[in-house]
Amino acid sequence: MKVHVVGAGLAGLSAAVKLAEAGHAVELSEAAAQAGGRCRSYFDPQLGAVIDNGNHLVMSGNRAVYDYLSVIGAQDRLAGPDEAKFDFVDLATNERWQIHPNLGPVPWWVTAPRRRVPGTRAADYLALAGLLQPKAGQRVDQAIHCEGPVWRRLMEPFLLAALNTTPEIGSASLAAAVVRETLAKGGRAYRPRIAEPTLAAAFVDPALAYLESKGAIVRFSRRLRSIAFEGDRLSGLTFADGEIAVGPDEAVVLATPPWVAGELVPDLSVPDAFCAIVNGHFLAKSPPGASAIIGVIGGTVEWIFTFEDRISVTISGADHLVDLDRAVLARRMWDEVASVLGLTAALPPWQVVKEKRATFAATVEQDAKRPPARTRWSNLVLAGDWTQTGLPATIEGAVRSGFQAAALASTPQAR
Ligand SMILES: Cc1cc2nc3c(=O)[nH]c(=O)nc-3n(C[C@H](O)[C@H](O)[C@H](O)COP(=O)(O)OP(=O)(O)OC[C@H]3O[C@@H](n4cnc5c(N)ncnc54)[C@H](O)[C@@H]3O)c2cc1C
């Protein structure tokens, strides 16, 4: 059968890849001139280099991510340590430590002072159990105590990165889903993984090559403007370059962001509050032996990523920073990076990328607005990190939604 996939972010790409793998005819239409959506790489003239819109961290236990990468032949494009190790710096006290969870599910690492947060006891970690089975509708601060060094130096940065929302007010069930799939499974499931050398090289270019090899049609700069419905079926798509009829044996996977889907599909409930992520990229070499990822406590910067020729900084839940002048932000970030890495160099060439609607706000209210993949039209299914995946807005969630949409679009009920 033929399936039209609209939107070539990771949800659309993974849907297209699964459909093509199963032998379906796929036509993928993307409004932008490139694929990747919120997970993209591009040449930045200010730096004279290819950069990612933002650093993306995935975990070794992200099973859909690895399934996707294995289909497109890109399993080797994620780099990271053999063990779960996370270096941290507290800018206020200049303390440095490493969290070093053991690989198995019994978390004995919390009993080893050199592997856990300084100033904590093993018993402090027991309190996190409340996050494994929260009550429906609870916020994180209703499920666990959000105070003390385990919170401030471990759970707060971890959950802020996972939810991209002030963790205390985040949905406990979304936080729990992440904790169950990572921390609760043991270090083997949360060894950090970063795309090498770029997001496009890992997640996007191999997918496009795979689709081409399967005869799929991929069209860029092709924005979907409206959808026609007839009875319980979607019957036509109007793109910027013209209208096409969608036949009785065809299906559509709509993998656009929620604000676009909400305009195209009548009466669709979608998340409508978003949180920003700000990234700073600096053309500078890291000192020898610098960790690939460093968590920063007590500063503006939250995570530092060191690459061969650049240093990048990520700040999640960054709505308070999006209106700040870029040069001011770059200076502030660089001062903190220099202090953490012991660099004395003046501000190098930089770029600041502000993604205002990086993810939907991972609150209870917004989670309740996420629609299921199936719609009331038999041949229209939704995909995207904002659909009801049970996870916060992450690559893993986007890919799972794409896979699910592919399965639904190719089942008889979907036609
Ligand atoms: C700065 C930043 C950092 C992040 N860090 C992480 C991280 O560390 N780990 C992690 O797991 N996740 C991270 N995320 C989240 C991750 O990027 C997203 O969850 C994922 O990329 C969402 O994919 P998607 O396909 O659902 O949506 P999108 O990427 O938004 O894809 C939607 C696509 O639809 C296209 N489109 C829009 N309108 C139309 C139209 N009318 N017609 C056709 N096409 C249309 C868009 O151009 C886009 O390509 C981060 C996000 C950002 C922005």
Task: Write up this protein.
The chain is an alpha/beta fold and 415 residues long. Helix content is 27%, strand content 24%. It folds into 3 domains: 2-41 and 197-272 and 363-414, FAD/NAD(P)-binding domain (3-Layer(bba) Sandwich); 99-190, no CATH class; 274-360, Polyamine Oxidase, Chain A, domain 2 (Alpha-Beta Complex). The chain is built from 11 helices and 20 strands. It has a 7-stranded mixed β-sheet with strand order 8-7-16-17-18-15-19, sandwiched between helices. It has a 5-stranded parallel β-sheet with strand order 10-2-1-14-20. The chain starts with a strand and ends in a 6-residue tail after the last helix. Residues 6-12, 29-32, 37-39, 53-54, 56-58, 223-224, 255-257, 260, 277, 279, 355, 358-359, 384-385, 393-396, 398 line the site of flavin-adenine dinucleotide.
CATH fold name of the largest domain: FAD/NAD(P)-binding domain
Distance between the termini: 10 Å
Silhouette: globular
Calculate the mean pLDDT score and round it.
96
**How many DSSP H or I helices?**
11
Largest β-sheet summary: 7 strands, mixed
Instruction: Give me the Rg, rounded.
Output: 22 Å
Helix content: 25-40%
Q: Which percent band covers the strand fraction?
A: 15-25%
Name the CATH architecture of the largest domain: 3-Layer(bba) Sandwich
Structural class: alpha/beta
Number of domains: 3
* Low-pLDDT windows of residues: none
The CATH homologous superfamily of the largest domain is named FAD/NAD(P)-binding domain
Order of strands side by side in the largest beta sheet?
A: 8-7-16-17-18-15-19
Tell me how many strands there are: 20
The set of bound ligands, ions and cofactors reads: flavin-adenine dinucleotide
User: What is the CATH C level class of the largest domain, in words?
Assistant: Alpha Beta
